[in-house]
Amino acid sequence: MPEISESFNIAQPVNRVWALLQNIPEVMTCLPGAQFTGQSADDVYGGKVTVKLGAVTASFEGEATVLDRDETTHTCSFNGKGIDKRGGSRAQATFSYQLSEVDGNTHVTVDADIKLTGKFAQMGRTGIFNDVAHQMTGEFAVNLEQKLQANATVESGASMPDTPNPVAGEINAFKMLGVIVRGRWRALCAVLGIGQSKE
Question: Is the torsion defined by CA of 182, 95, 93, 83 positive or negative?
């Protein structure tokens, strides 16, 4: 099953990024396909993630529990589990992230160990899941930075730019994979010094 290690940079101070990441409902609006459904106890959060793989769509409903949080080292770990009630697929995951300061900005590293059963387990076996996770991480980073910039604008008293809020929607694995494949093709063409066909 997939083990994921991703990293990205946010052009905001560590303390500001850390503070937003502790607001789980706000964070989930930045994650493609995710929806916050409530909080049942301290550090226990409900959510739903909708994934589309071709003609198959699954909505994993479950909860995530914060296991450890250290503001001094800016590290946090939590586990989550969810089930697609319609198709019977299940997902379990353990996540951890760490923030570090780089030239006044924030470097974020994310590690995850994910177990899938049911129809969507094939995503892990074929490697599609890792590619989709990489694409999702990039989209999450963009959404997170936009939200931080919007919050900073409000705090400064300046007028808000006309930037739309992230939309939960669903994770379209095939669409994301198409983006990945096109990106790899362009990179290969650049290395080989050949022209690219129009899409």
Answer: negative
> Does the residue 108 lie in any domain?
yes
Cβ(126)–Cβ(98) below 8 Å? no
Two structure tokens written together for 41: 């106890």
Q: What is the pLDDT of residues 102-141, one digit of tens each?
A: 999 999 999 999 888 887 776 666 567 777 788 888 899 9
Can you read off the two tokens belonging to residue 187?
């990179």
Report the distance separating Cα 139 and Cα 168, nearest Å. 12
- In this structure, the number of other CB atoms found within 10 A of the CB of residue 56 comes to 13
Say how far apart CA 182 and CA 46 lie, in whole Å.
Answer: 35
pLDDT, tens digit (0-9, with 9 covering 90-100), for 178-194 = 444 455 445 444 544 55
Instruction: Dig out the tokens for 46 from the structure.
Output: 């409900």
Helix axes of 173-192 and 128-156: crossing angle, nearest 10 degrees: 100
Instruction: Establish if 84 belongs to a structural domain.
Output: yes
pTM of model > 0.90? no
Percentages helix, strand, coil for the chain, rounded to the nearest 5?
Answer: 35, 40, 25
The model's pLDDT over 138-164, given as tens digits with 9 standing for 90+, comes to 899 999 999 999 988 877 665 544 544
Residue 97 lies in a domain: yes
Structural domain harbouring 121:
3-192
Spacing of C-alpha 117 from chain mean position = 20
